Amino acid sequence: MKAVDAADIRSSFVNASQGETERLPLPGLHEVMWDHREYLGWRDPQAHQRGYVVFWKDDRPVGIVLREADSALRSGIPAMCSLCRITQPSDQVSLFSAPRAGQAGRDGNTIGTYICSDLACSHLIRILPPASDMQPSPAEVLEGRIAGLLSRIDAFSSDVMRSA
Ligand SMILES: [Zn+2]
């Protein structure tokens, strides 16, 4: 992704009040390897149920505030992140809810989705299977995963921003 700075991030959130976006903690940005990310995602160290994702939707940074559900997934079964579609042990995938943008969100209307608990899909999709004759090359696998992740986060943000 193209880099975002602190000002981009604070002005990007579509489903949080101005007060919330002014207070929210930013991640360390100077060490981020932007070329290896499709979105910037981080958890709130103070309010750990909260998470934040920021990515470029067309030419605009779009941020979404997430809240992890209280109920954990049943342990011992695999779970799949709806953004990167990688299957992991269920304690590494969480049900997050995102308030809808605008009045709908202020009225308590949310969208729930399963996402990697650490919001690090970009890291996960780069762990590639070994090359084999039966599968596309690792480079092709990664290309497909990147395209899928970008289109699914874009669709998720469109859902959050849809006003009705
Ligand atoms: Zn994921």
UniProtKB/TrEMBL annotation:
InterPro entries: EF-G-binding_C. Residues 8-160 form the Elongation factor G-binding protein C-terminal treble-clef zinc-finger domain. It comes from the Bacteria. Pfam families: FBP_C (PF16571). This is Elongation factor G-binding protein C-terminal treble-clef zinc-finger domain-containing protein.
